[in-house]
Write a structure and sequence with these properties.
- The protein is mainly α.
- Helix content is 72%, strand content 0%.
- Helix 4 (83-110) packs antiparallel against helix 6 and helix 4 (83-110) runs antiparallel to helix 8.
Length: 292
């Protein structure tokens, strides 16, 4: 007599991000699909990954580096040496964050037709958006590396590891917030507008275009500590430490306790936000199909 398992299994129960790991093949397909859809009918295609940050860099460099005097020159000793490297190393990281979070927060609504037809791990969509943004990030990183080499870049192992930590901080943060706002956007479409404002603030609330010393001089030690707790700020400073500082004479100061304190704090905060986003997503995803 054949024995049957009487234990009932509830269909469609999410396993969270563990489902994303188990569905790696689906994740790969989604990333490929997103890239094809985005550049369908485009003349430049993936070259937009170079053009858009290039134009952004030129605008900011001319406005801030030349007109506002942030570029150090023989007639302006108060600026930053190799300001072009300083600026671009921050721009590519903040662009990765803004693209990843912006697309992840819209990913569930944007794939509503697919979600209503079949069941698959819904976390795949925000995570795929972060992966697509990473695909766009690495060509920009290659341009930065070439510019650094021409500027006499000579990093040590600690600086390279700091850059990896900075990228990890941003990736965790973007994934966590993408899960959070991706789920909230299904129920409250105002979430998209809130994310747009958050991204605008993130660009200017981190030392992408200006030096951290300018912030410390204006706000004092207490508020500077609050400013430092922003994971994006920490990540941008790690990129400056890894890519910009080795192209200078080394006399430029790095934020106090960047390696010993702030990088671990940034990782912990980003991991906590990832956990928060994951728990919120799992709680809300049960009614995605109905709400969409």
């Amino acid at each position: 007599m054949t024995q049957t398992n009487s234990e009932l299994v509830r269909p469609g129960v999410s396993g969270g991000l563990a489902d994303v790991v188990r569905a790696r093949f689906l994740l790969k397909l989604l990333v490929r699909k997103e890239l094809k859809v985005r550049y369908r009918g485009s003349v430049l295609g993936l070259l937009w990954s170079y053009v858009k940050p290039g134009v952004q860099f030129i605008v900011f460099y001319v406005a801030l580096g030349i007109f506002l005097g942030l570029e150090q020159s023989p007639t302006n000793r108060g600026g930053l040496p190799n300001y072009a490297i300083y600026l671009f190393s921050g721009i590519i990281l903040i662009n990765f964050f803004t693209e990843a979070l912006g697309n992840a927060s819209r990913s569930i609504v944007g794939n509503g037709g697919l979600i209503k037809k079949i069941y698959l791990p819904r976390q795949l969509f925000p995570v795929a958006s972060v992966w697509v943004s990473a695909v766009h990030f690495f060509p920009q990183l290659m341009i930065l590396l070439v510019a650094c080499f021409f500027s006499g870049w000579n990093p040590n192992l600690i600086q390279l590891l700091a850059a990896v930590a900075g990228f990890l901080i941003v990736a965790l943060l973007a994934t966590g917030l993408g899960l959070l706002f991706g789920a909230a956007n299904v129920y409250f479409r105002d979430s998209e507008n809130f994310v747009d404002m958050l991204l605008m603030i993130a660009t200017w609330a981190s030392p992408v275009m200006y030096a951290w010393t300018m912030v410390q001089a204006k706000v004092g030690d207490f508020w500077f500590t609050v400013y430092q707790m922003n994971p994006i700020t920490i990540a941008v400073e790690t990129f400056h430490y890894a890519f910009w500082l080795p192209t200078t004479d080394g006399a430029q100061a790095i934020p106090p306790h960047l390696l010993s304190l702030w990088i671990p704090v940034g990782v912990l905060i980003s991991a906590a936000i990832l956990l928060w986003g994951q728990l919120t997503f799992r709680r809300l995803e049960g009614r995605f199909a109905q709400e969409l």
